[in-house]
Task: inverse folding
């Protein structure tokens, strides 16, 4: 896994909930198998998992993958993982809900995205995203600003009842110190997240 996100050309952001009866099983699978498996794909550089902290209508979980570019998602290696899920992946897919998938081109990236706490916003316009980034720039060394691709293909196995639209065209994610998270009203409009563990990546495909 690359510890510096500055060379990341694109990101895949996925929000989701999971049915409560398999929540513990989901987290074990996602941290130990699913994310490490995705990181075997050439060009998939890093992956981060988060759980929502604040009261929000947004899904509880967020996963962000850093990629060399968005074409990684068109590669044979990635398509193979989609078409041939492991037994646990096949079991988990029907339990995923409120899923939103953004494929984004990175416009600005700083730091290594190692912050325990993350504030995330989505915006319709670049100017609004950059203004918010400037407002909080003094608080963080971890920043990701990315523009959503309107032409990204949906997940082939996803049913309409599993999807939830996260509105916007721009994604802004910033690492936040603990003291900032203690006063969420000081981070207006943000969805606040806490980092979850990820096991080391499996051998490359």
Result:
């Amino acid at each position: 896994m690359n510890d510096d996100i500055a060379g990341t050309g694109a990101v895949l952001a996925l929000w989701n909930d999971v049915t409560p009866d398999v929540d513990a099983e989901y987290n074990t699978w996602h941290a130990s198998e699913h994310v490490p498996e995705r990181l075997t794909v050439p060009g998939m550089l890093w992956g981060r998992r988060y759980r929502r902290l604040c009261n929000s209508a947004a899904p509880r979980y967020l996963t962000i993958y850093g990629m060399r570019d968005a074409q990684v998602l068109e590669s044979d290696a990635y398509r193979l993982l989609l078409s041939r899920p492991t037994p646990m992946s096949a079991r988990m897919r029907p339990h995923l809900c409120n899923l939103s998938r953004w494929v984004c081109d990175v416009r600005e990236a700083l730091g290594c995205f190692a912050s325990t706490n993350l504030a995330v916003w989505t915006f319709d316009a670049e100017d609004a995203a950059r203004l918010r980034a400037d407002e909080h720039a003094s608080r963080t060394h971890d920043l990701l600003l990315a523009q959503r691709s309107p032409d990204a293909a949906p997940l082939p196995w996803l049913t309409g009842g599993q999807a939830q639209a996260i509105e916007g065209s721009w994604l802004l994610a910033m690492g936040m110190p603990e003291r900032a998270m203690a006063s969420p009203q000081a981070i207006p409009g943000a969805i606040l997240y806490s980092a979850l563990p990820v096991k080391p990546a499996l051998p490359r495909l």
The longest helix spans residues 23-38.
